[in-house]
Amino acid sequence: MEQAIPYLLSNDDWITGILLVCFLITSYVLSHGRTLLFQSMRKLFSTHEINHIFHKKTVVDTYCLLLLNLQTCLLISILLLNILSEDETLTPSVALSLLGCYSLIMLLYLLGKRIVYRFVNWTFFDRVKNSLWIDSYFFIIAIGGMLLLPITLLIVYCDFPYYLSVLLPAILLFLMNLYFIYRCFSIFFSQLHGLCYLFLYFCTLEVLPFLLVWKVVGMVNDIFI
Question: How many other C-beta atoms are found inside a 10 Å radius of the C-beta of residue 110?
Answer without folding.
Answer: 17
